[in-house]
Structures are given as C-alpha cells and as structure tokens.
Amino acid sequence: MSSKKTRERARFLLVNLLKSFFYLALLVGLFMVFRHFSTEEQRYAWFGSVYDNPALVLGIFVGSEILFGIIPPEVFMLWSLETGSIGPYFISIAVLALISYGAGFLNFRLGDWIRDKDWVSPARFPQLKKYVHLFEKYGGYLVVVASITPLPFSAISLLAGVGGLNTRTYLLLSLFRILRYFAYAFILTGIDGL
To answer: Tens of pLDDT along 112-135?
Structure first.
C-alpha cells in the first residue's frame, strides 16, 4: 500500500474518531445537564413508561441498529447505566454489543443476497450513493471505521455485502464494533461518578 493511501486512510479514521468523541462528549454533556437539572420524579414522569420497560427499549435498539443506527447506541448505553434493567452494566453492554454486531451481520447478509439483483442500484437508492463511493475507495477498512465511529455501521455492513466482501473477513473486521461498546462503557462509567 502506498504511503499516500496509508495517510489518506489514517486521516479518514482520525476525522471520524474525532467526530465520534465530539458526539460522545455532546451526549454525555446533555445527559449530565439533564441529570443535574431534573429530579428523579421528573425523569420518571417524562420517560417512565419507556424507561422501565427493558423489552421495549431493547426492541427500539434492535430496530434502530437494523435500520442504519437511527438512534446513537450511546443513548442505550446511558439507559443501561442508569437503570441496570438488563443486569450488571458490563453484561448489558455485552448484550447491546452483540445485538449491534448481529444487526450488522444481518445487513451484511442482506447486502450479499441483493448484490446481483437488477433492482438494486445507487441511482434507485441515492442516500447510499455516498457510502457506495466510500466502500469502493476503502473496502474492508470502511467496516473497521464504521465499527468504531459514528458512520452508520449497518449501512456500511449492507454495502460490504453488496460489495462482495468475504464473510469471514467481514466478521473479523466488525469485531471492532464490540470493542467500541466496551471502550465507550469504560468512559461512561467514569462520568457516572461525576
């Protein structure tokens, strides 16, 4: 690999990691402000029916992860930290990480299935055009970056399937998704004491 390509990949990863940390800091800041300026009763009044229903929250999480990560996973990590509804924090993080990993693999398999279908094209689905270009440029490296940054992991997984990435390679590269969950969990447990 040329040094120019290596620098370009490193820059791409760095930019997306910085975005990731910015979004995490913003979310944590909002969480801290919300926690500081509201009472437990007010929080329960606003979110009680959802907050105390782990099956509903996990259902929303699964839907979000399958539908290209509509809701940032950190929201669910914070929910888990606050409620302990699915057990000890790091067990719940493992559950969330495995759900996300599984949703990505589901999208990968869907992409693999539709790869040769005539009705699938970037022209028909213009919102994917940007990511098709990124996958063509970065290939499997894009799966790693999407696993650890705010790039839509499930959408990139779908493109990896459409792009013909080897299944074993995909499964190995997307393990970084689990690493991201645990790295963020350690950060969030640090701010929980504040």
So the answer is: 888 776 666 656 666 666 777 777
What is 39-70 written as a DSSP string?
-HHHHHHHHHHHHT-HHHHHHHHHHHHHTT-S
Both tokens of residue 33? 């402000």
Spatial separation of the C-alpha atoms in residues 147 and 15, rounded to whole Å: 14
- Return d(Cα 178, Cα 186) in angstroms, integer: 13
| Rounded Cα–Cα distance for residues 53 and 65 (Å) | 18
Angle at 156 between CA 151 and CA 159, to 5 degrees: 155
Identify whether the C-beta of residue 104 lies closer than 8 Å to the C-beta of residue 157.
yes
Neighbours of 136 (CB within 10 A): 11
Helix, coil or strand: residue 47: helix
- pLDDT digit string (tens) for 72-111? 888 888 888 888 888 899 999 999 999 999 999 999 999 8
State pLDDT tens for residues 29-87.
877 777 677 676 766 665 666 677 889 889 999 999 998 778 888 888 888 888 888 88
Residue 132 in contact with residue 122, Cβ under 8 Å?
yes
Of the candidates 141, 143, 149, the residue with the CA atom closest to the CA atom of residue 183? 149
